[in-house]
Amino acid sequence: MSGHSKWSTIKRKKGAADAKRSKMFSKLSKEITIAVKQGGGSEPDYNPSLRLAIQNAKGVNMPKDNIERAIKKGGQDGANFNESTFEGYASHGIAVFVECLTDNNNRTVSAVRAAFNKYNGSLGTNGSLSFLFDRKGVFEIPQSEELDLEELELEIIDAGAEDIESDEETITITCALEDFGNLNKKFEELKIEPSSSELQRIPNDTKELPINEAKSVMKLIDLLEDDDDVQNVFHNIEMTDELAAEME
Fold first, then answer.
1. Rounded to the nearest 5°, which phi and psi values hold at 62?
2. Of 197, 217, 4, 201, nearest to 99 (Cα)?
3. DSSP three-state, residue 59
């Protein structure tokens, strides 16, 4: 569930197939539930993690009822999700980093391992890919006529923004992990509500593959992303225009 630039993971466009939207809502519901349980309560004003999770849910037009149910679930004893990560290689030497939230770790391990095996990948030990990915804060802001991009850049660079990309629909801002909180506060001060604010694992180098090889790797990525326990999948495929067109 990430951005659109060359180093980011593939995110299906908002408003895509209903099945994809349902999966996205399920993953965001888990994030809200975890934020309530781990972040100190159900009031967004006093729980920054919950405030971010709700903001991301609103950014993909998740219904208010879904958000409220997830908050309520977080206050109940039965919602015991744990975070887990998996690292490995897909075919053709592509690095893959998987982040999960699960209430049954054995089930999740089995599903992730089966996905790698099905598409000729191999799981590695945790930490084996740490040299390939940097953890960064990534914000997406919808373009608007009222937004002065030059003025915005001056404000957010002082708060720690490292990279700013824009297209006709979205402004994407990247920052170091330690500046994630500073930028969140800056957007609140500026009364700007990002459609997405999240920590991503950004590859420090990408690998371009022939289109057929890249498409075979993306079958693994898709299978992992479709698993209910998987929250995010990061990889280091170079997202060429040709591959992006194939994935639409």
1. -70, 130
2. 201
3. helix
